[in-house]
Amino acid sequence: MITLPTLHDDDLSRVKVIASDMDCTLLADDGSMPPHMFERIAALDEVGVIFCAASGRPSYTLHDMFEPVLDHAAYLSDNGAAIACRGELIFKDLIDVPTYHELIDFSLADGRGFPTVCGIEACYVERKYRDQWDTTLHKFYKRIEYVDSFDTLTAEVNKYTVFFPNNDGEDIYAETYRDRWGADFTVTNAGKQWIDIMNKHVDKGQGLAHLCEYLGVSMDDALALGDTYNDIPMLKAAGHGYIVANSEDHMQAHANFQAPSNNERGVAQVIDAVLAAHGVTPSWA
After folding, report:
1. Domains of the chain, each with CATH number or no CATH
2. The model's pTM
3. 81: exposed, middle or buried (C-beta count within 10 Å: 0-12, 13-18, 19+)?
């Protein structure tokens, strides 16, 4: 049974798009997806609802994670800087080369985190971090190119990210990055270890709007689920905005509804409720 402490969402039969954040929302704390997730995605597609993985992760990582159902799903990667639908890239928004080099120089001078430069084809990281952080980084970036220096990098980049090993990214965001770069870029936290920077008009809310426009779906008929800062634009933009119960308290101001926690598989429970509203009784229920 879905627990909705705020309001009861009784209009799920209208939902045509379900966009879910990944870490701490769809994925449990151990990084696993809910059982039968791919069956749920295929069942949604059969009733005219498309599932969208909406993440700060890059497109190639989401592609690999959802490969069995790519023809039935969409993914919004790099916080909306690239969008694919049914296996086709339908949108990308690039940061120009001189600009991302300015960002790199700033982070290197600051010294409290290290750049993980998110390209369309790979993530670029300085080689000196490989031995200590490769396993951690590969959880998020399935394709990493280690470089001796960023000086000659000219790759297509759609998101600039800084990794903070000491879990102090939220404090450093508020202290330094927000005011320095917020006027010119979308700057957000993705948890305590990451600061993400995209072009000014890029966020998960705009990404969801691009996807809905492509599909011919009203944003009123989109449902979004998330848990943290970079999900806020998507939660506000969707007609049905859900936080999961493990979200920090401040996130309650940004959603209409609450689902069970990620470890209770709250996203899967919401999907099953949407399927039920479309007249489907899941075989796995």
Report:
1. 12-92+203-277 (3.40.50.1000), 97-199 (3.30.1240.10)
2. 0.82
3. buried
